Amino acid sequence: MSETTVPVTTLASTSTSASSLKTRGRGARISLGALQIVLGLFYAFASALPKLIAHPSAAEAFDKLGWGSTGMYLIGALELAGGLALLVPLLSSVAAVALGGLMVGAFVVNVTVVHGPYVATPLILILPLALIAWARRDRTTELVRWVRRRV
Q1: E strands, 51-98, where?
Q2: What are phi and psi of 119, to 5 degrees?
Q3: For the chain, which terminal residue's Cβ has fewer other Cβ atoms within 10 angstroms, N or C?
């Protein structure tokens, strides 16, 4: 005769699992917040600022594209707005989607016009932006509710 054994979970293992999930969730929230801060500061200072102060390297790149200073200031302003919006909890998901769209455009321009060494950079930036957009999607729902109340 064979015996069938059924695993028995104890209260201790259940509470340990619950606390580890809670800790893991807290760690994930902290990591996501840190990622948002790093990307927000990157877009505001490393990406937008050279365009907005007309750094010679940025001006040269936009002149090469044929977009001139108007295109440079416009892209710089969009990057600054997106970088700052990543730091605002209610706007973080929408900002990540908008910056992701901007990075798709940057990738297309890099592939078709620039042919430079940084072709993959926009694609690399899309990945954390997509993660933020997905993880903070509940914020988009909150934003839509807030806008509907105001209208």
Answers
A1: none
A2: -60, -40
A3: N
* Phi, psi for residue 54 in degrees, rounded to 5: 55, 50
d(CA 46, CA 38): 11
CB-CB contact of 65 with 108 (8 Å): no
| Whether residue 89 has pLDDT greater than 70 | yes
Q: Give the percent of the chain with pLDDT over 70.
A: 84
pLDDT of 20 strictly over 60: no
End-to-end CA distance of the chain, in Å? 73
Q: Which of 11, 32, 13 is nearest to 137 (CA)?
A: 32
Closest to 71 measured CA to CA, from 95, 86, 54, 84:
54
- The pLDDT, as a whole number, for residue 13 is 47
| CA–CA dist 45, 123 (Å, integer) | 19
For 108-145, how does the pLDDT look when each residue is reduced to its tens digit (9 = 90+)?
A: 999 999 887 888 999 999 999 999 999 999 999 999 99
- In one-letter notation, the amino acid at residue 145 is R
How many other CB atoms are found less than 10 A from the CB of residue 117? Answer: 8
